Amino acid sequence: MAKLIVSQNGEVIENCFLNEASFTIGSRTDSDLCLAIMGVSRSHARITSVGNDDILEDLDSTNGTLVNGRPIARHILQNDDVIEIANVQIRYRNHKAIDGPSFDRTMIIHASALEGGMPSQPVGAYALATAKQERRFKKGARLGLIREVKGAQPGAEIELSQVLHIVGTPGKQLAVINSRPHGYFITHVEGKKPARVNGKSIGKEPRPLTPNDVIEVGDEKLLFLLK
């Protein structure tokens, strides 16, 4: 289980464990890590667990989020990364991350970045190799799409042209659909219970999708298809 070591002015003030799919950081009192100090937005950042990996996102905060001294919008955390929010340092500890990026981690690279031949952020040689493999898959594979059966826009279709596509209702239930060289997979991200496919829970591990699968996630019912 990943751990956050929170320090301020050189002193450790808190230790947190990432034991939920979503972990919030901000000045709100209901944040998982509440930092009620100047320079911290109410909803400042979020860490989302996907498989064995943790993804840090800045939630359009006023003063931004740094990792190892560099501003980020989204960052795949690696062991010993230091997150900086205002004058607070948060060290990320996850010894599983030492072994290198998992397959799901490389899939978070945006498809448009792959077209340029480079991932949107440096995650090592393993990620580069997998990115090239993903690029070959994109050229020859049928494009996936989801059709909304129940929700805000019944009948609407969304092409899965990005490598990562989040579906569901924030704060209630979220899942991510990602493309791999051998097809599309859906993975639980947020919520007490995972999404359902064809009436059955997808569980905690990535589940392959096949044409005409019915996905129930959050307030939506979606039909997965291939073009």
From TrEMBL:
Domain of life of the organism in this record?
Bacteria
Q: Which SUPFAM superfamilies match?
A: SMAD/FHA domain
Q: Which residues form the FHA domain?
A: 23-72
Q: What is this protein called?
A: FHA domain-containing protein
Organism of this sequence:
Thiobacillus denitrificans
